UniProtKB/TrEMBL annotation:
One Pfam family this sequence matches: URO-D
Name of the molecule in the record: uroporphyrinogen decarboxylase
Family in the record: Belongs to the uroporphyrinogen decarboxylase family.
Taxonomic source organism: Coffea arabica
Superkingdom of the source species: Eukaryota
Coiled-coil regions, chain positions: none
CDD domains recorded: URO-D
SUPFAM superfamilies per UniProt: UROD/MetE-like
Length: 322
């Protein structure tokens, strides 16, 4: 989950000096510095690369920006077969060399005291941004495409799937020790549509990566995935990240014995008292039971969260004995 972000004063200070998100996330020195900010203060077990799921888009011939107060903006949203035709296969070493360099430096800096984590966007979630033109409420444009011209959308999803498989391999080769796939908007689909427009492409990515990197742990996160839980292990990922709207014990049962779980403390809990935070952590760990569990929040840390409460989360977490 997002570790940097606007709740840290040190990150806000960098944003003042470098107001462009693209610059902060595409300059090796800044990427390394920002990625290490939470590590230096909280010493988590995982250090996540500072980047965005949209970062590969410019290398795929899809110009974008992330605008303060507005979020992601795609300058020329895709809608036709000709638009999809123009999308280039992603070649990470040519388009995002700064990501590889930053991961390699992070591995050295972290010195095996924590795992360095990479991430990518899932095909459906990336497609929803490039078709909608940015964040969306009703996802009308991508649904119009899915339900009236599905072939066009499938062609786009296929390009994202092969490109993201390549990107995961690249991140692993440069130093990432686990990679999380964010399918943030897959849950906007009904299960039958998830089976057509998201699941096959997630499986394609996982199958392809496992052929060359069988040991690389792959984590899948989809926010609001309660209605899809039984289907998520079909992707073949090793870990499923749950948000807080699912009871951890029930989630574990519904996912079955073959996957590890991650999560799922409500990020809003970090606005509570220290005692409240401690209780929720203990509750989550107890409910996750004896199987493999990565203790985490159920989504990114919210802007305005007191840093001392984040520190408390880590203190409690590190004191736990599994
Ligand atoms: O800890 C980290 O720093 C990890 C880096 C990270 C970012 N985005 C940096 C970022 C990660 C893992 C992401 C993933 C991401 N980006 C997702 C998947 C996770 C999720 O939330 O479901 C999605 C959907 C995006 C797309 C995106 N990027 C949105 C919707 C926004 C706007 C959010 C906002 O509140 O404005 C971004 C911008 C963004 N990416 C920020 C950060 C720290 C905040 C803007 C900023 O710092 O300037």
């Amino acid at each position: 989950m997002r570790q940097a972000g606007r709740y840290m004063k040190s990150y806000q200070a960098i944003c003042e000096k470098y107001p462009s998100f693209r610059e902060r996330s595409e300059n090796v020195d800044l990427v390394v510095e920002i990625s290490l900010q939470p590590w230096q203060v909280f010493r988590p077990d995982g250090v996540i690369l500072f980047s965005d799921i949209l970062t590969p888009l410019s290398g795929m011939n899809i110009p974008f920006d992330i605008v303060k107060g507005k979020g992601p903006v795609i300058f020329d949203p895709l809608s036709t077969a000709a638009d999809v035709e123009k999308v280039r296969e992603f070649i990470p070493e040519e388009s995002v060399p700064y990501v590889g360099e930053a991961l390699t430096i992070l591995r050295k800096e972290v010195n095996n005291e924590a795992a360095v984590l990479g991430f990518v966007g899932a095909p459906f979630t990336l497609a929803s941004y490039v078709v909608e033109g940015g964040s969306s409420k009703h996802f009308t444009k991508i649904k119009r495409l899915a339900f009236s011209q599905p072939k066009i959308l499938h062609a786009l999803l296929q390009k994202f799937a092969t490109s993201m498989a390549k990107y995961i391999r690249y991140q692993a080769d440069k130093g990432a020790q686990a990679v999380q796939i964010f399918d943030s908007w897959a849950t906007e689909l009904s299960p039958v549509d998830f089976e057509e427009f998201s699941l096959p492409y997630l499986r394609l990515i996982v199958d392809s990566v496992k052929q060359t990197h069988p040991e690389l742990p792959l984590i899948l996160y989809a926010s609001g995935s309660g209605g899809l839980l039984e289907r998520l292990p079909l992707t073949g990922v090793d870990v499923i990240s749950l948000d807080w709207t699912v009871d951890m014990a029930e989630g574990r049962r519904r996912l079955g014995p073959d996957v590890a779980v991650q999560g799922n403390v409500d990020p809003g809990v970090l606005f509570g008292s220290k005692e409240f935070i401690t209780n929720r952590i203990n509750d989550t760990v107890r409910k996750a039971g004896k199987g493999k569990h990565i203790l985490n929040l159920g989504h990114g840390i919210i802007v305005g969260t007191p840093e001392e409460n984040v520190a408390h989360f880590f203190e409690v977490a590190k004191g736990l004995r599994y």
